Amino acid sequence: MAFLAGPPRRLEDSGNTVTYRHLLSPQAMTVFNPLRTIAHCDIDAAYAQFESVRLGLPDDIPLICAQWQSIIAVNYPARKYGIKRFNTIDEAKKLCPHLYVQHVATYRNGESEAGYWGEVDPQTHKVSLDPYRRESLKILAIFKELVPKGEIEKASIDEAFLDLTPMAIDRLLLVHPYLASVPEDAPDGLDSALPPAPPIDWSKAGNVFPADGEEGAREVTTWEDWALCMGAEIMAEVREEVWKRLHYTCSAGIAHNKAMAKLCSAWKKPNNQTVLRMSATSAFLRDMDFTDIRFLGGKLGQAIATEYNAQTVGDMLTVPLEELQAKFGEESIWVYNIIRGIDHTEVTARVATKSMLASKNVRPNVKTPEQGHHWLGVLAGELNVRLRDAREISPGLWPKTLVLSHRTGIEPSRSRQIPFPFTRNLSTEYILKFARRLWDEATQPMNKGNMKLNNIALAFTGLEKLEEGQQGIEGFFASKVSLDAINIKRSRSNSPAGSPKKPRLPTLHTGKRKTPLEAFLAKGESSASSSTVQANPVPNGWTCPKCGALITPSDPVEARSGSLAAEKQEHEDWHFAMSLQGGGTGGSGSGEQGARPKAKVKKKPQGIKAFFTPKG
DNA sequence: CTGGTGAGC
DNA sequence: GGCTCACCAG
Asked: A Pfam family matched by this chain, by name (predicted)?
């Protein structure tokens, strides 16, 4: 039974020797590879920086981003004046009289486009975070372009994890070409240990968190450190590129796993990065506040901290695994591991959104159906434009359900949902029809004069890319058949009789003009392949270097007027959209060891579908 | 399908 | 505090 006591071990994880297999075998590229190199990156005071750049302000102007009377972001120049997020705007202005206060964009009474206005009124306006989502996508596009080989996980609107392992190994082999082949006389072939690692020049890697008693003492350099250094150099280049192209500064952490990368990205801010080597992990974690660790900032973390009277990670290290699991469940092994710097969770390629919420705290309270309908219209209008926008980047994107939530006073909010049938004619009105139905159900129990809502929210959930076949026939006819009929007619046999031809459902390409954002997003992809494009010209057409598809002008009449170029661009956009959605090189697909709360062991489906299948 | 938790700006 | 997002339990 003794072998069950420790954390799980695998061949790849054996001891502390790095072998040629770790470096060269694709099969060894799992979460257990000791050379694994993960970065976490977040934009410094994101919303405030977005606004400062949008306004074209100099970098040293103190600015806060406001939402009604509260502050949601404080840029670093403003922080010098002691301004915090929880200050009121008046307090902030007292601390810094020349502070630039910028309110977030808003929709004015249900207008179809959000904008920046001189005056904003919470009674008539609805906050829009769309401008920030767009910036977020631009940044992700740069990550994707500069880190084409590793997975990228969008963690929030301004944070991402990057698996730098493949790129770091490439660079390592570039610097040490002799590692690329196993020596003839290596005793164990691929499983032979690498030669001793030479000293490292960390000068381009940013901050390196010091290990215990390291000052001047002899320190053993490892190949794991080399991988981190290569990753850190890559990350520094990525950050530099974000700065050059978008003028945003960001902070990053580079470590062997996600949890540590996330923690050390916050070590030096702003505009800085920190490397956390294995040998420095315990020194780094020991004095850290236990509840600063991701997923331990809430009730669970509090419960554990209280149980063991622990403040720092160091305080928790004496708690035996068995005891922890006895009190907090089998799953709490991830806590045991993470305070030791161990985290085997994967960087899951995900940049597509799974839900869209438009929420409004209404002032004054909504007391009549008429007031409710007004706000429903505003919320539906926002969802309409957001889904439209998302579909330009992710064609075929469609929500499974529409959800209405509402809250009365301090009661917990209630929600109701309804399937959201596909239509080719998405409109605010279409969304509203379903939203109203939910509203009627939800407000049914409220007696006249009893209604007093202070929050109303509308959300799309189960956002997925529909393939043509999945776009139900009943959905296709939605605009022609009464809505009541749609809800009843779910089965194919109920579809209108005598519709022999499969309807031509919306194609992947809308053929619409590109927005500046799309053009921007497409740029990286097309320029990257442009040299290849030149190399294989096809008379009267173009062969995609990525998939081999032959693109010819669909309309001969328009052929001379740039139609081919447009279709080529569209095709490349499509590839880009696919790559953004995580269709890159497949994941490593190794099993998980419960390193995260409730992590499930899942078998990965094959191919591109894998990224769109609902979790089962 | 509904509610709750956790995180972040 | 307002507005998001993801994930999970029952």
From this structure: IMS_C
Reading the block at residue A127, the tokens are 């906050």
> Which residue bears the tokens 């409004």?
A360
pLDDT of A207: 97
Peptide bond into A539 cis (omega under 30): no
Question: CA A238, C1' B8: Å apart?
Answer: 23
DSSP per-residue codes, A29-86: -STT-TT--EEEEEETTHHHHHHHHHTT--TT--EEEEETTEEEEE-HHHHTTT--TT
How many Å does it take to go from CA A542 to C1' B5?
Answer: 51
The whole-model pTM stands at 0.74
Task: Quick: pLDDT tens for A93-149.
Answer: 999 999 999 999 999 876 888 999 999 999 889 999 989 989 998 999 999 999 999
Per DSSP, A6 falls in state S
Q: Give the three-class secondary structure for A539.
A: coil
pLDDT-derived band of residue A448, with 50, 70 and 90 as boundaries? confident
Q: For strand C, which nucleotides have at least one atom less than 7 Å from a protein CB?
A: 1-9
Predicted local confidence at residue A352, as pLDDT: 77
State the pairing for strand pair A397-398/A355-366: unpaired
How many Cβ atoms sit within 10 Å of the Cβ of residue A558?
A: 13
Q: Taking all residues of chain A, what is their mean pLDDT, rounded to a whole number?
A: 77
Distance from CA(A354) to C1'(C6), angstroms, rounded? 8
Domains in chain A, CATH or no CATH each: 46-134 (3.40.1170.60), 359-388+396-461 (3.30.1490.100), 515-525+538-616 (no CATH)
Strand C close residues, chain A 380-439, CB < 7 angstroms:
none
| Ordered DSSP codes for A134-182 | HHHHHHHHHHHHH-TTS-EEEEETTEEEEE-HHHHHHHHHHH-GGGGS-
In whole angstroms, what is the distance from residue A187 CA to residue A368 CA? Answer: 81
Tokens 């279709």, residue? A567
Query: Is the peptide bond between A364 and the residue preceding it cis, with omega within 30 degrees of 0?
Result: yes
CA distance linking residue A229 with residue A231, whole number of Å:
5
In the predicted structure, residue A615 carries a pLDDT above the cut 50: no
